[in-house]
Amino acid sequence: MRLSFKKVVKYTIFLIMVMFLNIWISYTVNIWSFNNFQDREKSSEVSEISYGGAVPRPPEDDPTKDGEGFNIDLNLHFSRKQRSAKEISPNNELAYYSKDKLSGTHMDRKNNSNLLHKLNPLTDKHRGRGKKKAFVVSEPEIEKTDETGVRETELSDIFISVKTTSKYHQSRVSILLKTWYRLAKEQIYFFTDANDQEFKDVLGDHLVNTNCSADHRRHSLSCKMAVEFDYYMASRKRWFCHVDDDVYLNVPRLLEVLRGYSHKEDWYLGKPSLKYPLEVVDRENAGMKLTFWFATGGAGFCISRSLALKMGPYAGGGRFVTTAEKVRLPDDCTVGYIIEYLLKNRLTVIEEFHSHLETLWLIRPHQLKKQITVSYSEYSSKPNVINVQGFNSTQDPTRFLSLHCFLFPNFSECRVLL
Ligand SMILES: *[C@@H]1O[C@H](CO)[C@@H](O)[C@H](O)[C@H]1NC(C)=O
Ligand SMILES: *[C@@H]1O[C@H](CO)[C@@H](O)[C@H](O)[C@H]1NC(C)=O
Ligand SMILES: *[C@@H]1O[C@H](CO)[C@@H](O)[C@H](O)[C@H]1NC(C)=O
Ligand SMILES: *[C@@H]1O[C@H](CO)[C@@H](O)[C@H](O)[C@H]1NC(C)=O
């Protein structure tokens, strides 16, 4: 049967319409998935603005501008705004800032779907990759963004707090100043308990006198952690990393590891020094016990922005001290208590954090480049230090100078070793 010209035109038009319908459908689906990401960004933006700390806000690069590289048409912007207005969920952290009393009842409990993807950071990446592919049509390639279009984490996105005390400025802090401090000067803040003009001259605003007492009791420690937390919140950085003054932090390695996690998800990264979770008496329910894991403060730990915002009601505005006193725990245990017990999140164990409670000389020299932190202890009869070639033990009892030269031989102090 022959087709008339009219019929050919009809079929052609029909086919073209089907094609357009197809394109339209796939485009709408893409907008939809794109919006989900944007909304998450939006709501975190709102909650950040609402954080009212008494701490001065250091200048910062706006962490909420992650998606700005995108060149999307007006329609997209419009629908994005519309959605975000109604999508600020009722369980947003922002609500908790207005509450003075600590109460766990309204906490948004993580459900299994969230936990699942917590167990494997890659799951999210893979999902993200799929999404980006889906709307590659309208999006120009931008360098240094991950699969979800979020700007890759830079060193400037990390807040590094070092807890120290006036007694250790000379013996401990000075070693840090000679070594890894120089790789991240702008990111590092030292939290101490006295005015020290000599160090103030070097560090300026980056040396913070917490006005906490200088002893090693629970209250003094949590007092410092409270100030650290508030400074971090005011900095609005993506990551809060805490270390003690007897730690060598491998700065580039820390950055590399943090890039594997999203600051918009809840992450508590660190390493416990116990083989079992901490068990404490539940002071609210007589006869009951609470168990939870915590990352040893002496090994260092990092908390994502998203999680830190949720910690606000228990840790922000000085409330960390109240929480620590309530459960009668030291600072690092209290962090674990807030995150694991009150917020129902999980510690993600990162093996590359090392405190002085570990046998440090067991780290093989060829593995040193991969470690995030190492420590030392000077008190035992056999010093517990890492095994690294370099300066002799009189010049470098902590091995930090040798490690620094091993990792960064380009520093001028290291020339004598070559
Ligand atoms: C878990 O969370 C997801 C996404 O936030 C939600 O859609 C789902 O209903 C939740 N499931 C439960 C059991 O709460
Ligand atoms: C410690 O006290 C001094 C003097 O009163 C004050 O200027 C400073 O802000 C206090 N530090 C903190 C972290 O509150
Ligand atoms: C360590 O090296 C310094 C300088 O090279 C030297 O004076 C000192 O004797 C050495 N100490 C030991 C214990 O080898
Ligand atoms: C040494 O190299 C590292 C990176 O490998 C760099 O960040 C640092 O600035 C360099 N230091 C000097 C003194 O050149």
UniProtKB/TrEMBL annotation:
Q: Which GO terms describe its cellular component?
A: endomembrane system; membrane
Compositional bias of kind Basic and acidic residues: 58-68
State where the protein is found: Endomembrane system; Membrane
Q: How is this protein situated with respect to the membrane?
A: Single-pass membrane protein; Single-pass type II membrane protein
Bilayer-crossing regions:
12-34
Q: Where is this region: Disordered?
A: 48-68
| Family annotation (Pfam families) | Fringe
Query: Is tRNA-binding among this UniProt entry's keywords?
Result: no
- Per UniProt, residues of the Fringe-like glycosyltransferase domain are 152-399
Any GO MF annotation of the entry = glycosyltransferase activity
Primary place of residence?
membrane
Keywords from UniProt, A to Z, are: Glycosyltransferase, Membrane, Signal-anchor, Transferase, Transmembrane, Transmembrane helix
Q: Which family, according to UniProt?
A: Belongs to the glycosyltransferase 31 family.
- Extract the PANTHER family matched here: FRINGE-RELATED (PTHR10811)
Q: What is this protein called?
A: Beta-1,3-N-acetylglucosaminyltransferase lunatic fringe-like
User: What organism does this protein naturally occur in?
Assistant: Biomphalaria glabrata
Which gene is transcribed and translated to give this protein?
LOC106053876
